[in-house]
């Protein structure tokens, strides 16, 4: 579904290729990514891991498969930094274990790499990226401070 704030209405878009829940989603450049997660087997109701990753183009209203994850990651953290997607930790329903693995997606190479592990295994984590720009010196403040100090002498 896509919300249009101008019309205050929701519009149905093309569904993902693979049904999934407990997955991660993010945007990278002009696409939306649906990453990993899990689903239930209809007959047994046993939950299974999904390693597939899909990329959605809003311009084309089309989902495309990209490189699959290296390992299962339901309920993982996700962040985008310097043109790469980072998947942090997660949970494998099939193996019933938490993960401390960081998986990094390089869109240009359509490939996942193993990053540096987290200090401990974790799932259900929220992640974000905050970019702080270096503080530049304000010449006006410097001049005012100097003038104020000179007057006190």
Describe the structure.
8% of the residues lie in helices and 39% in strands. The chain has 153 residues and is mainly beta. It has a single domain (2-151), classed as Neuraminidase. The chain has a 4-stranded antiparallel β-sheet with strand order 3-4-7-8, with no helix packed on it. Strands 9-10-11-12 form a 4-stranded antiparallel β-sheet, with no helix packed on it. Strand 5 and strand 6 form a beta hairpin. The longest helix has 13 residues, at 139-151. The chain is globular, with a radius of gyration of 22 Å. The N and C termini lie far apart (69 Å).
CATH architectural grouping: 6 Propeller
Helicity level: under 10%
- How much β-strand is present in the residues? 35-45%
Q: CATH top level? A: Mainly Beta
Structural class: mainly beta
Q: Encode the helix/strand succession as letters.
A: EEEEEEEEEEEEH
**Structural Rg:** 22 Å
**Gap between N and C termini:** 69 Å
- Sheet having the most strands: 4 strands, antiparallel
The shape, in one word, is globular
The CATH superfamily bears the name Kelch-type beta propeller
Mean pLDDT over the full residue set: 90
Strand runs, count: 12
Poorly predicted regions: none
Number of domains: 1
The CATH topology comes to Neuraminidase
Strand order of the largest sheet: 3-4-7-8
Number of helices: 1
Organism: Strigops habroptila
Pfam families: Kelch_1
GO biological process, one term: protein ubiquitination
Keywords: Kelch repeat, Ubl conjugation pathway
